[in-house]
Q: What sequence folds into this?
């Protein structure tokens, strides 16, 4: 079956080549790659008529001839760690390839393994085979399907039962723009044993150069009572594209604290799907974004309440200036029998300029009656009264605006449970806002 | 609810399920079954229409043949065979009626049974009624009195002949013939409906009302309503709908267009109580309706209120195009689904002009095995400086086999806009139920009271006569949903 | 036969046994006070009498005016003449106090074969009752208990009792959370409703209210059973010694 779109992207030749390459790997892995290809071919490149992509067009992405084989420029100096996360274990990938010289895994605690995914897959430990591609349902996820077909390297993190990791694991993916547009497909699998606790931070960063397209997939499996903190920072350059899917499966009583901070990129889509299939699980998906220039930032989430008695909380806040566009699509699904579900969702956006646009679709789909679900969404400009108050105290307009924007986004950042990560991401946000709002992206 | 005058409508409402399920035994004139260009020509000829009207219908029909039925809405129904229905059914009467005395007594009796007396002396004070039976308008009351003020209130078929300049100017100007599958079908085959025109500066002295009744079997009803409020005028319009109980599904694809010019206000209220089908989902009306109002003038206002308790499937989004600077759109909705009913309803508020504002209050109640979806769009266009929207959607679930869904689309393209949206979903409170029971209220009455309280903000926007009927309907449509 | 006869009543809430064999008789015309520490099960008793869902009776009986109360639904019990003044009156948005009360009264009148009251008759009747309780017209127009202060909610409960004229009134900690002025108003309201035909069960934690509503009988409730009964002096004794002695007696 052919893709239904008029554009065939990637080219058929490339898909065929990928199919051949897949056949070379272990049979079980080849099958997951073939499945990814099948799904992508059936679905095709998403377009505005597809509900989930109504507000996020990918023509700009498809129009660029991204080459998965473009040589990556050499990156010799590791990017500076996030202030406050200097103690984190670091695993660095450049254009999807593991960079051991830039990584820092000394003193890794017992019961924790951090391994390149290809190494793990070649000699499959139970975790890879049991979970890779099993958490994320590729249905309706064409880019994730593409990742399944094309990923070349990734990271496997496993935590044994009861293992508690005090230092965060920082997974850094650098999109190094070389001479030609390049694409790559980072893949992450994190497996938490029973009662395990750890903090995973993903940073997707860009460097100057030709455009890059990072098509990432992260899967997180948490067994009973595990405590997962999973934070994501996306800070690409003006020409960088990032489409990332995170899928989370929680066991009974497990908790997930997720955050997505987006500070830059031509097009960024963070799609998170959490399945609450066991009772007593708790999930928090929060995020903040600041979009300026021509940036397009999309946060799309699905919280799927399958089991009774689970709780979900979701807060996203965004600031959009210049001619940037912010998109929020949140869906809380409460299936039949998921009684006593408690779900709340909130999206708030500030528009700073006349060219900016914010589209929000906070959705509830509910098939159980004994539930408490709600959502809220607001969009508006900076509060004039507050601004005037600051001005009246002698604070210059630019600085006053910056203060108010920071205060607004801080409302979302406060949701991050891990104190050091919270401060580290706050620092990244302040710096970025400081840069982006030199001219403030305002009228 | 402080005082409850007994209205004719209320008296007609008893305590049990669907009270309007009777069939009137009256001879009908039908178009041949099926739909093609000849059907369209047949209808146009029956209505003695001018050529331009027929041409418009034919353009719509030809466009319709290229269209596909929409599938994005959250409702399920077997495919409709558009060739297996009658597109025109009219009660057989004399050529023209000179007075109500010439109306078939069977018809008058039908409307009396429905609580809608057409004889003016029996009328509720201050309501002018246009009664549409199957496809045609059978009686319009208070015409003379309205004419004296320059208000035109007539069947649209008559307006096409007598006020072609107005109809040509406005028909299709809000909902173009190519708008959507069902609206296009309506444009091709609409048989009658209501036309109202309120001239400059006139405050229409009474409620205008149309009562729609589907009677004949295997017919679709395709009425078309057009209301124009000239500069500085005001009109309040009510519509009510019922149909007999039948095992088959019948299609009702209406179109309503409203035009409000400078400083004009139109208030449009609907109590929709088409036959919902039986408890197992057999029969019932498919209510696929396009309603849209254009606030063309500055400071114009359009207010939609709907109480949707009937129909097997409801698919409608009464909308406002807020073009005029300072124009206001409001949407108040109660949608109740029980048994196997499905509703996908909401509104669109398109802010184009400066300082436009809109308000959306939606209350969805789902019981039995029903599905109830609020779907709404708020769009602030780039030029809509200072636009405001407030939306509140609350859903109530009664029983664990039903569904309640909220699908808002909020598009903000102007930085000076202020948009707020809130939604909640919960079940009917056990504490509230017990409190009522403890005071001696039977369970169904307790549910009715609590749900009426939940809907109050919407119900109180209805004119008095309708508010009382609507309150009763809320209780009746939820019968059997608890216990 | 007494108006209310409770025999060997055992009841569970969420699987946990709270009432462990309660015996109690309330005669028409008498006011019984049931006192006990927090968590003793006295409010559970009130809810079981009123038939609140979630309270499972596992043994024993409740006979009201010769009828088996446990076989009746909550609304049927109310129409038979059982009234519960809630410790936490429930808010019902959108339903005005007047509408609510009129529906309740008419449901009860219909049950007794009496003609229902139209809104005008009802409001006239209501005005007289309101005045003595210091309930304002404004309060009647507001939705049931929504935005009411603690005192307003309790006064509203007593007003409902005055309107519905029950045969048995169960007042569940109606005194809790009231300042002395509000307590007096409520107590006056209760006293005004004392009548030879009516029984009352006053459930309270504190002796304070009993200075204003003097009971005919006092029962001490602890550990899900009545551990002591006496006249009004028992309440005073409790005030001095506290519940500890009785609780200990129960534990022994």
A:
């Amino acid at each position: 079956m052919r893709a239904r779109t008029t554009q065939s992207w990637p080219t058929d030749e490339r898909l065929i080549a990928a199919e051949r390459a897949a056949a070379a790997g272990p049979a079980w892995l080849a099958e997951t790659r073939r499945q990814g290809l099948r799904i992508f071919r059936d679905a095709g490149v998403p377009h505005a008529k597809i509900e989930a992509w109504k507000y996020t067009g990918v023509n700009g992405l498809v129009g660029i001839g991204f080459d998965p084989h473009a040589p990556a420029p050499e990156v010799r100096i590791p990017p500076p760690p996030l202030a406050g996360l200097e103690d984190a274990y670091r695993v660095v990938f450049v254009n999807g390839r593991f960079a051991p010289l830039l990584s820092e895994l000394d003193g890794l605690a017992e019961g924790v393994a951090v391994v390149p995914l290809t190494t793990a897959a070649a000699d499959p430990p139970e975790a890879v085979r049991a979970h890779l591609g099993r958490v994320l349902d590729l249905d309706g996820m064409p880019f994730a399907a593409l990742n399944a077909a094309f990923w070349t390297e990734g990271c496997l993190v496993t935590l044994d039962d009861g293992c508690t990791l005090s230092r965060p694991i920082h997974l850094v993916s650098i999109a190094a723009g070389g001479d030609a547009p390049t694409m790559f497909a980072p893949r992450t699998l994190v497996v938490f044993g029973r009662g395990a606790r750890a903090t995973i931070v993903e940073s997707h960063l860009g460097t100057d150069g030709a455009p890059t397209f990072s098509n990432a997939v992260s899967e997180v499996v948490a067994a009973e009572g595990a405590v997962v903190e999973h934070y994501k920072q996306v800070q690409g350059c003006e020409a960088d594209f990032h489409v990332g899917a995170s899928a989370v499966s929680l066991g009974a009583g497990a908790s997930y604290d997720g955050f997505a901070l987006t500070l830059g990129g031509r097009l960024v889509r963070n799609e998170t799907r959490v399945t609450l299939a066991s009772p007593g699980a708790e999930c928090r998906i929060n995020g903040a974004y600041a979009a300026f220039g021509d940036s397009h930032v999309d946060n799309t989430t699905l919280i799927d309440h399958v089991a009774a008695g689970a709780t979900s909380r979701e807060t996203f806040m965004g600031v959009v200036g210049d001619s940037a566009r912010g998109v929020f699509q949140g869906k809380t699904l409460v299936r039949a029998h998921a009684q006593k579900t408690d779900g709340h969702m909130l999206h708030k956006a500030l528009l700073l300029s006349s060219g900016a646009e914010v589209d929000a679709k906070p959705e509830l789909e509910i098939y159980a009656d004994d539930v408490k679900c709600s959502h809220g969404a607001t969009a508006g400009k900076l509060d004039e009264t507050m601004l005037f108050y600051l001005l009246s105290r002698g604070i210059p307009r630019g600085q006053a605006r910056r203060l108010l924007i920071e205060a607004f986004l801080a409302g979302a950042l406060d949701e991050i449970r891990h104190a050091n990560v919270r401060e580290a991401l706050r620092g990244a946000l302040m710096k970025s806002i400081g840069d982006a709002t030199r001219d403030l992206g305002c009228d | 609810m402080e005082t409850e005058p007994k209205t004719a409508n209320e008296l007609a409402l008893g305590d049990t399920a669907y009270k309007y399920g009777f069939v009137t035994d009256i001879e009908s004139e039908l178009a041949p079954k099926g739909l093609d260009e000849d059907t369209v020509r047949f209808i146009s000829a029956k209505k003695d229409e001018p050529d331009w009207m027929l041409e418009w219908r034919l353009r719509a029909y030809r466009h319709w043949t290229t269209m596909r039925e929409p599938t994005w809405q959250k409702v399920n129904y077997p495919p409709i065979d558009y060739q297996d229905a009658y597109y025109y059914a009219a009660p057989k009467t004399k050529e023209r009626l000179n007075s109500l005395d010439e109306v078939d007594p069977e018809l008058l009796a039908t409307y009396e049974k429905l609580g809608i007396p057409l004889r003016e002396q029996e009328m509720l004070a201050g309501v002018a009624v246009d009664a549409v039976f199957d496809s045609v308008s059978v009686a319009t009351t208070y015409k003379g009195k309205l004419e004296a003020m320059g208000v035109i209130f007539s069947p649209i078929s008559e307006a096409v002949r007598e006020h072609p300049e107005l109809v040509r100017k406005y028909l299709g100007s809000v909902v173009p013939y190519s708008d959507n599958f069902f609206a296009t079908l309506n444009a091709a085959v609409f048989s009658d409906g209501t036309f109202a025109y309120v001239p400059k500066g006139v405050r229409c002295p009474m409620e205008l009302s149309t009562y729609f009744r589907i009677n004949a079997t295997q017919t679709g009803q395709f009425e078309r309503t057009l209301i124009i409020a000239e500069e500085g005028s005001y009109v309040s319009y009510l519509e009510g709908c019922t149909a007999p109980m039948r095992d088959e599904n019948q299609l009702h694809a209406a179109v309503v267009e409203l035009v409000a010019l400078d400083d004009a206000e139109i208030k449009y209220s609907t109590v929709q109580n088409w036959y919902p089908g039986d408890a197992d989902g057999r029969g019932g009306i498919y209510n696929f309706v396009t309603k849209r109002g254009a606030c063309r003038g500055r400071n114009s206002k359009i207010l939609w209120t709907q109480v949707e308790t009937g129909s097997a499937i409801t698919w409608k989004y009464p909308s406002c195009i807020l073009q005029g600077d300072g124009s206001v759109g409001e949407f108040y909705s109660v949608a109740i689904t029980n048994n196997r009913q499905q509703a996908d309803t909401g509104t669109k508020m398109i802010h184009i002009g400066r300082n436009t504002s809109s308000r959306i209050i939606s209350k969805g109640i789902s019981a039995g095995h029903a599905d109830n979806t609020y779907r709404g769009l708020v769009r602030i266009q780039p030029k809509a400086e200072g636009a405001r929207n407030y939306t509140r959607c609350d859903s109530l679930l009664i029983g664990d086999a039903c569904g309640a869904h909220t699908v808002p689309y909020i598009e903000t393209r102007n930085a000076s806009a202020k948009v707020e949206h809130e939604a909640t979903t919960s079940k009917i409170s056990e504490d509230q139920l017990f409190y009522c029971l403890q005071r001696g209220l039977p369970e169904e009455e307790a549910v009715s009271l609590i749900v009426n309280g939940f809907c109050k903000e919407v119900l109180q926007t209805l004119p008095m006569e309708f508010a009382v009927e609507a309150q009763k309907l809320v209780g009746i449509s939820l019968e059997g949903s608890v216990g | 036969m007494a108006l209310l006869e409770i025999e060997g009543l055992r009841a569970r809430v969420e699987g946990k046994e709270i009432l462990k064999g309660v015996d109690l008789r309330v005669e028409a015309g008498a006011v019984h006070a049931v006192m006990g520490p927090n968590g003793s099960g006295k409010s559970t008793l009130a809810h079981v009498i009123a038939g609140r869902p979630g309270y499972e009776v596992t043994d024993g009986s409740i006979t009201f005016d010769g009828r088996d109360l446990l076989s009746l639904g909550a609304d049927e019990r109310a129409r038979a003449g059982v009234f519960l003044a809630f410790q936490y009156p429930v808010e019902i948005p959108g339903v005005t106090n007047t509408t609510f009360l009129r529906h309740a009264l008419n449901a009860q009148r219909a049950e007794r074969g009496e003609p229902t009251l139209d809104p005008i008759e009802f409001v006239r009747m209501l005005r007289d009752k309101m005045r003595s309780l210091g309930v304002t017209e404004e309060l009647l127009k507001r939705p049931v208990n929504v935005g009411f202060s603690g005192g307003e909610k309790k006064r509203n409960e007593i007003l409902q009792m005055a309107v519905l004229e029950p045969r048995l009134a169960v007042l569940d900690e109606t005194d809790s959370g009231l300042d002395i002025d509000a307590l007096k108003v409520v107590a006056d309201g209760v006293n005004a409703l004392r009548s030879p035909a009516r029984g009352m069960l006053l459930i309270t934690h504190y002796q304070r209210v009993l200075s204003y509503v003097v009971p005919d009988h006092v029962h001490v409730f602890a550990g899900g059973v009545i551990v002591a009964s006496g006249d009004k002096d028992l309440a005073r004794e409790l005030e001095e010694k506290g519940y500890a002695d009785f609780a200990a007696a129960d534990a022994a």
